[in-house]
Write a structure and sequence with these properties.
alpha/beta, globular
Length: 478
């Protein structure tokens, strides 16, 4: 480790010590039905959101926590897997997992590792560097993380606890916790969509942008990318750079979307207070933003457009698809496109029942369609399938009383978007979204123990001072 990083870490320890007030522990261990102490909070996912949530809890003196991630250490999140862009798209000065501690920002880490001149000349953050930073951050603040662990199922347990069935390399175990946070990023409540016309194509000929794709195997082949968001362009560019013979990007809109609504909404008022609005306003804002979809920056487009064998097709939704002896034919209103391989960048749909960890209660998770009926001109069935969350990011029940324990399961993922705006999958929202979640978690933990806190106050008898009284003189005052 460089001297600069060593000095930075010493500065971080000093910073955290200065803001540690109040440092008193306030949660007592609660025993699980297996006789072992239960966790106060189990966080599923140790990517950027999980790290930020864990940090926020530790600063709130909730230290009996554990983060799980199914990936190997350092491979959490998309950065070294299916993120196929050279750099982050967020401006380099956006802060996030540091939770407003200057010495913990990416800038501080970058300057300590590469020098201040490197930071000054930096355009955007390399995604590999972002992954390195997140791993350094979690180690520096000493977060308890177990890698190679996957959540299989959540169920209620005795004494108001939750039971999490977890698989790991050496078997399966049950962890008990007072609260569970699903910091599962993109896929937490569903899966990547493959348009219906493509679902019957031969296995191995269709993938989503989140799949592991052997791009070298696409050399000399015809590739079609469905969708026109940033991830779709990233995959098209990766195929082009790997030597694909042709790459066709199909956009269903008559004109491709070039506006980036996430730049508009990056201000404190919206990020912090959208969730305080009534349902009509929340729906109106988020439907407009999500129907626009996330735009792409100029560099992302240029990465594709510089190749002569790249073709953008606007107004070309997939109407039908079929396999032929020569490959795949995609039928669109603009004509037929021939391909050997298809990559779908068409987003994520909600499918609670398809998630094994939610199977015990998937049918009773309330959705936006259960709670709010928008005007006819604002309807959107896909967005209506998003979960309708409480003000602490907790699941709410479709039928009250059937699964009351799901109020201790909190969702911080892309599926939180309809209730909270950008939150569980956006760097720009972390500084407002994570404190809101942590506040909700500590509020719930305090309320659950309010009788114990009252008893503790009632029994509190620690004197703060010793009062000595002068002995009175036996003489009379004159």
């Amino acid at each position: 480790m460089s001297d600069a990083l060593t000095e930075l870490e010493a500065s971080i320890r000093a910073d955290l010590a200065r803001i540690a007030h109040p440092g008193a522990a306030w949660l007592e261990p609660k025993m699980g039905p297996d006789g072992k102490p239960a966790l106060d909070v189990l966080i599923v996912g140790a990517g950027q959101s999980g790290v930020a949530i864990g940090f926020g809890l530790m600063r709130s003196r909730v230290s009996n926590i554990l983060l799980l991630d199914k990936a190997a250490e350092g491979m959490e999140g998309p950065w070294l897997t299916y993120a196929r862009m050279p750099t982050l798209r967020s401006p380099k000065d956006y802060t996030g997992p540091d939770l407003d501690i200057p010495s913990l920002t990416y800038q501080s880490w970058h300057e300590a590792r590469f020098g201040k001149e490197s930071w000054q000349g930096l355009g955007l953050i390399e995604r590999e560097h972002w992954a390195d930073y997140l791993l350094w951050l979690r180690r520096t603040i000493a977060l308890p993380v177990r890698n190679g662990c996957e959540l299989l199922k959540i169920a209620p347990a005795a004494d108001g606890l939750l039971a999490a069935l977890v698989t790991r390399a050496d078997g399966v175990e049950t962890l008990h916790a007072r609260k569970i946070v699903l910091a599962t990023g993109q896929e937490g409540m569903g899966g990547w969509m493959i348009p219906e016309p493509l679902r019957d194509l031969p296995a191995g000929s269709v993938a989503t942008v989140a799949d592991e794709i052997d791009f070298e195997n696409l050399r000399g082949k015809r590739v079609a990318v469905i969708g026109a968001g940033a991830s779709a362009f990233d995959n098209a560019a990766t195929a082009l750079e790997a030597g694909a013979a042709e790459v066709h990007l199909l956009c269903r809109r008559a004109q491709i979307q070039v506006i980036q609504p996430y730049r508009w909404l990056t201000f404190r008022g919206f990020l912090r207070h959208l969730s305080d609005l009534d349902d009509a306003w929340r729906w109106r804002f988020m439907r407009t933003i999500l129907e626009m979809r996330e735009g792409f920056p100029q560099a992302t487009y240029d990465r594709c457009a510089r190749h002569a064998n790249f073709t953008l097709h606007e107004g070309a939704p997939i109407e039908a698809a079929c396999a032929t002896g020569k490959g795949i034919e995609l039928h669109t209103p603009r004509g037929t496109i021939a391909a050997d391989f298809v990559i779908c960048g068409t987003g994520i749909d909600m499918n609670f029942a398809g998630r094994g960890e939610l199977s015990r209660f998937a049918g009773n998770i309330a959705t936006w369609a259960d709670r709010y009926q928008p005007p006819d001109n604002e309807r959107n069935e896909r967005l209506g399938r998003f979960p309708y969350l409480a003000d602490d990011y907790a699941f709410t029940e479709r039928v009250p009383g059937e699964t009351p324990w799901i109020s201790d399961i909190h969702l911080f993922a892309i599926a939180s978007t309809m209730s909270f705006g950008p939150s569980g999958s956006s760097i720009n929202a972390m500084t407002t979204a994570v404190p809101k979640l942590v506040h909700g978690l500590t509020r719930g933990l305090f309320r659950a123990d309010v009788a114990r806190h009252w008893a503790s106050l009632s029994a509190y008898d620690v004197p703060q001072a010793v009062v000595t009284r002068q002995a009175r003189s036996s003489g009379k005052l004159r």
